[in-house]
C-alpha cells in the first residue's frame, strides 16, 4: 500500500509526464479569432538581464505605453511568479530551468488568448530562452536584452541582494556565484546607461508591430 507522501509523488509524476491516454482537446475558438477581437497581434516580449538591470521598470513603462494605446497586455514578473506559481522552486540550476519552463508555458497560453505578454525574468541560460521562443508562433517572440553592467547593477542594488551575496548570505546568486549567459543576438539590445526607462520602452515599441488591421 502506498503511503500518503508516495501517493502524492506518484500523482505529481503522472501530471508532469503526460501519458498516452492524455489527449489534447480541440478548441472551437481559434487563437487568430481571439487576437482579432482584440485588434492586436499577440507578442511575447521577453526581457532578460541581471538583477537590478531595470527589467521590471522597463516592463512597467512598456505596458503603460501599450495600455495607453488601447492594447491588452500582462506582465509576468519573476519576483511575483515566485510568490505563487513557482514558490516551490529554489535557485539551483535545475530549478532555474524549471522556473523558465513554467513561465514560458504560461506566456504561450496568454499569447494564445491574444494578449501581448511582457516577461521580466533574469532567465540566465540561453538554452531556456531559446526553448521559450520555440513554443511561440513564428515572429511572436521578442528577446530583449536589458544590458546593464554588473558594476552598475551592484551600485544600484535596489533590494540589497548583491551586498548579501557578496557577504555569502545568498548562495547561487546570478552574476556573483551563478552564471548569466548574455544574449549574443537579441532582437532588441537595450543599453540602459544611455537612456531613461521611457526611452527603452519606446525602443521596444519601435521594433515590435502589434497592430492588426
UniProtKB/TrEMBL annotation:
Keywords: ATP-binding, Kinase, Nucleotide-binding, Phosphoprotein, Transferase
Positions with a binding annotation for ATP: 49-56
Enzyme kind, highest EC tier: transferase
Molecular function as annotated in GO: adenylylsulfate kinase activity; ATP binding
CDD domains: APSK
Gene: cysC
Task performed by this protein: Catalyzes the synthesis of activated sulfate.
Protein family according to the UniProt entry: Belongs to the APS kinase family.
Gene Ontology BP terms: hydrogen sulfide biosynthetic process; sulfate assimilation
Pfam assignment, any one: APS_kinase
Pathways per UniProt: Sulfur metabolism; hydrogen sulfide biosynthesis; sulfite from sulfate: step 2/3
SUPFAM superfamilies named among the record's database cross-references: P-loop containing nucleoside triphosphate hydrolases
Superkingdom classification of source: Bacteria
Record: active site: 123
Protein's UniProt name: Adenylyl-sulfate kinase
Domain APS kinase: residue ranges: 43-191
HAMAP family: Adenylyl_sulf_kinase (MF_00065)
Catalytic reaction equation(s): adenosine 5'-phosphosulfate + ATP = 3'-phosphoadenylyl sulfate + ADP + H(+)
Enzyme Commission code(s) on record: 2.7.1.25
